[in-house]
Specification:
With about 950 residues, this protein is of the alpha+beta class. The protein contains 22 helices and 29 strands.
């Protein structure tokens, strides 16, 4: 109890008074009973001096740790705003790994080096260390700007490389600095662990180099997966993993406040050497594309972790954790073991082309890194603030408040979050993830409370010392109040359970526990038939049919061999694999097979394309066979075909759609004015127009009272209108933020479909580059099957390439006609409208619910085009389809100029044969055709533009033009 960190050096008089001055506060001289001599350290402190010393301001830890605090708040901000930030998933992961973890490693590896090697460095000599950390953070910032921005500005890849170079250089400099200190220090029993800090620090530049490679936009998918594995292995398992294990050798028993177990150092060092060897095998195997070697390296690394875990468990037997730091660090280490084991399995069983490391990202980032970091900081910060046992104890109490509840909430939430999507859906995962995130974020207010407790306790002690009071014995130091860990854990589990139920209430289909069909009169055999099936790129299951003895349980292992499209396998009893990403394998338990069944892919439109899987029950009676395959149930919003019948078409009449009503209050009108040409840059004498199209799945109103969950380009039902001139280069970057594969087909370009029009999987991107060779209005759309469904879901738009000699007009508009083939889901959308969906069967039948201009059936009736009498207008028209064309007509007007499919049929009344008094009444366009018409209005009034196929007009293909006097 004699430790008094923060007292002035012996003999220093900080009061400014001569020795022997009165400290009683009265006018008498001499000492009060129990007072300290005035020349003793800590006497005669002014309130300002007490506050300064109590706060600990000026220590290098405080200055060096500032970036960590900033990154914590940045992480919370990005988490809240991630929907609006490009590449936000990558950004959040790297705020943790670079912003929080890397900064912390540089600070605390220096701290442990000094502690273990008995090195004393005055604060005034810390300038280089602090500058290195601030340069590191500048590099991190540049790197993040490059990665987030290069999706829109590919030239920012250079910033990504520069940022990675700065980060790698600073960490390598740190490692070299540690090596210099070790060489200059006296030998220490634990000094060998510092050498692993050095090895880990020197690994990061290699990991940063791999990171720069995988950020390269044109890196092939297979190489990307190989270098991503190498990148994550070097950085997470090498830089962080080796540093963490090297620290836990001494830090684990320290947190538990017990001694090291016998031979702990020997076993831990062996494990560290094994980790280095396993890491080397993994990296070499990844780079060379040798999966068995990479998997073997991960297994070696896993064995090393199990050795360390054995040492940690032996230590636990001597002292069980009672505070947050060892609880959190221990669970973090457990998740590291789970993550390495899962990665080893993935690498061993999955080709590099299909390897998706995102599957284990939550394990490493949340389970391992964040829990390790927060646990370690919760122990180290109070110790580093110091002030004596009473001060540290007061701070520790705040840092460990609700310890069991926080640890239980985080790990239970993560466990549910990592459950297969076939069992637990997104709404449940999001709900429990919020609880887990709140438990993690509790560290911030508790850290503030801990710092305040440290400062206030130190102030009280210093003030008491200055007043000459005796220290008060604290009984709690010997017999601390027991903490109700079991009660806290129960409360946390209850909170997670409530979040789980809330997610289920929002979407009951989010819980897909295996259900078992009734065996009827067929006795269960107790045997299981397991079959392997592949989902292929031609929308087929291979094999497409299997025979199963009646009474056997059927388990199907489905591998998605389609490189660009998600699939699933769904049975009539509700059993499903859930979404299977390209390259993934998932298993579904179909239950006891008592009769023939037909399973299918429930992704929108895939069943109608023939993606079915038949199960034939051998040995079943004719009655049972007849009963099989007919108990169909709906699979939800995107594939009504699951019901086995064509859904009922919504019509204007049977759905009571008010075609004279205005769009809902939340609807954003599409501007009918033709946009300016897209922003351009000059490259080698060519005009290059760069556009980014992001796939987004959103709810959009299509008619008054009717909303559809759309698949869109840039969030719009009907994609953006692009514009340029003949000879312009269009560079379109497609980013797939959706849940299934999508693609692009630009009619304005003449390019090979093989590479530019390929379907890309969720999370991928593609650059589509073409030169505009001809003038006109050109359709573009998603080219992924079923094309008709993707187009009716809003994935179409137009490119206008201006003819060279366009005549001047007063107004220029664009109208793109699209269609919707809807049935009512019986649900209500978030805007209060009916929630409808497009049906592949209704599209095939060919009768639309709605025919719309620019994505909504009534918007230009409610908000007409405004023109003055005598003004000339040009209207570009595109019939997008997918099934119907248009006969564009303006009631009360005539066209004196008609341009169709790249050429004039009539221009200012003149045709190709010399006639100069011609006019036109309609522009006829088949699906995917376009053109424009020009006209002048001779009288004021309200004119209506329509598709003169009147059934289409009555479904919404109409709008108004209001002509006013000048």
């Amino acid at each position: 109890m004699s430790e008094h960190l923060g007292t002035p050096p012996e003999g220093e008089n900080t009061s400014g008074k001569p020795a022997g001055a009165n400290v009683s506060g009265g006018g008498s001289s001499g000492l009060s009973i129990g007072a300290r001599p005035t020349e003793a350290p800590g006497a005669n402190l002014t309130p300002e001096e007490i506050a300064r010393r109590a706060s600990g301001r000026g220590t290098w830890h405080r200055r060096a740790s500032k970036p960590v605090s900033h990154w914590m708040f940045t992480l919370i901000a990005v988490l809240l705003l991630h929907k609006f930030i490009p590449n936000s998933g990558w950004l959040m992961v790297h705020i943790v790994t670079l912003g929080l973890i890397t900064n912390s490693i540089l600070i605390w590896s220096q701290h442990f080096t000094e502690a273990l090697m008995k090195i004393k460095i005055p604060d005034e000599h810390r300038g280089t260390q602090v500058r290195r950390i601030f340069i590191l953070n500048a590099g991190i910032l540049v790197l993040m700007i490059g990665m987030v921005g290069q999706l829109s500005v590919p030239g920012l890849y250079a910033a990504t490389v520069v940022g990675a170079l700065i980060v790698g250089s600073m960490v390598a400099w740190h490692g070299i600095y540690l090596l210099k200190q070790v060489r200059q220090a006296l030998p220490s029993r634990f000094g060998v662990t510092i050498r692993f800090y050095i090895v880990a620090a020197l690994l990061l530049p290699l990991g940063a180099a791999f990171g720069g490679m995988i950020a390269y936009p044109n890196l092939s998918g297979t190489l990307h997966s190989q270098f991503l594995l190498a990148h994550e292995a070097v950085n997470v398992l090498g830089f962080v993993g080796i540093t963490a294990v090297g620290t836990l050798v001494t830090f684990w028993p320290t947190m538990l406040r017990t001694k090291m177990v016998d031979k702990a150092l020997t076993h831990s060092l062996r494990a560290l050497y094994l980790m280095c060897g396993g890491l080397a095998l993994t990296v070499v195997g990844a780079i060379l594309g040798m999966r068995p070697l990479a998997a073997a390296g991960l297994v070696v690394y896993l064995v090393a972790l199990l050795i360390v875990a054995w040492v940690m468990v032996r230590t636990l037997r001597t002292k069980r954790p009672n505070e947050y730091p060892p609880m959190s660090v221990g669970m973090g280490f457990l998740w590291l073991i789970v993550g390495v084991a899962a990665t080893a399995y993935m690498v061993a069983t999955t080709p590099f082309a299909q390897l998706d490391m995102r599957a284990v990202t939550p394990i490493f980032v949340v389970g391992f890194l964040l829990q390790l970091l927060l646990g370690a900081m919760s122990y180290l910060l109070p110790q580093r603030m110091g002030g004596g046992p009473a001060v540290v104890r007061a701070s520790n109490k705040e840092f460990s408040r609700f310890a069991a509840a926080r640890v239980t909430a985080v790990n239970l939430a993560l466990l549910i979050f990592m459950m297969p999507s076939s069992m637990v859906g997104q709404s449940i995962k999001i709900a429990v993830a919020i609880v887990g995130a709140l438990a993690l974020m509790a560290f911030i207010p508790l850290m503030v409370r801990g710092v305040k407790a440290s400062v206030n306790t130190r102030k009280e002690m210093m003030a008491a010392r200055a007043r000459g009071e005796k220290p008060v014995f604290n009984q709690e130091a010997l017999t601390p109040e027991p903490v109700p860990h079991a009660k806290q854990s129960f409360q946390a589990a209850l909170a997670v359970a409530m979040a789980f139920l809330l997610g289920f209430a929002v979407n009951p289909s989010a819980l897909n526990l295996p259900s078992f069909s009734s065996a009827g009169s067929v006795a269960a055999t107790g045997q299981t038939t397991t079959v392997q099936v592949k989902a292929t790129s031609n929308y087929r299951f291979t094999p497409a049919e299997v025979e199963v003895p009646a009474g056997n349980r059927l388990v199907v292992e489905v591998t998605n061999d389609d490189q660009s499209m998600t699939h699933d396998l769904t049975f009539d009893n509700g059993a499903t694999t859930g979404t299977i990403n390209p390259g993934e394998t998932k298993t579904v338990d179909a239950g006891i097979i008592s009769a023939d069944q037909e399973a299918y892919c429930s992704v929108a439109g895939h069943r109608s394309l023939g993606m079915v899987f038949k199960v034939k029950a051998t040995g079943a009676s004719a009655n049972q066979v007849a009963q099989g395959g007919h108990n169909h149930g709906s699979t939800g919003a995107h594939n009504h075909a699951a019901s086995g019948s064509t859904p009922t078409l919504m019509t204007v009449a049977n759905s009571r759609i008010d075609m004279s009503a205005a769009p809902g209050s939340g609807y954003k009108y599409r501007d009918p004015n033709i946009p300016a040409p897209n922003t351009a840059t000059q490259v080698n004498g060519k005009t290059v127009r760069k556009v980014t199209l992001e796939v987004e799945e959103v709810d959009r109103e299509v008619a008054p009272g009717v909303t559809v969950h759309m698949w869109t380009f840039n969030g719009q039902n009907m994609a953006p209108i692009l514009r340029g001139k003949v000879g312009d280069i269009f560079e379109i970057t497609l980013i797939n933020n959706g849940t299934m594969g999508h693609s692009l087909d630009f009619h304005a370009g003449m390019v090979s479909p093989d590479n530019t029009m390929k379907t890309i999987a969720p999370g991928e991107r593609l650059v589509y580059r073409f030169e505009a060779k001809g003038a006109g209005i050109w359709l573009y759309h998603c080219g992924t099957a079923p094309l008709s469904l993707h187009m009716t879901q809003g994935m179409y738009g137009a490119v206008i390439i201006d003819p060279a000699d366009l005549d001047p007009v007063d107004h220029e508009y664009v109208m793109v006609q699209g269609e919707a083939y809807l049935h009512d889901t019986g649900k209500t959308a978030s805007d209060g409208n009916k929630l409808a969906e497009n049906s592949p069967e209704l599209i095939a039948a060919g009768t639309p619910t709605l025919t719309m201009f620019n994505g909504h059936a009534t918007q230009y009736k409610a908000k007409p085009l405004q023109v003055k009498k005598g003004e000339r207008i040009r209207v570009w028209v595109m019939a997008a389809g997918p099934n119907h064309g248009t006969s564009f007509h303006v009631v009360g007007s005539q066209f004196d100029t008609v341009y169709k499919e790249g050429g004039y049929l009539m221009r200012r009344g003149a045709d190709a044969f010399g006639s100069r008094d011609g006019h036109s009444q309609a522009l006829d366009l088949a699906p995917a055709q376009g053109g424009f018409v020009e006209m002048q209005f001779l009288e004021s009034g309200t004119y209506t533009f329509v598709n003169h196929s009147f059934s289409e007009m009555e479904r919404g293909a109409a709008g108004k033009i209001v002509v006013t006097n000048r």
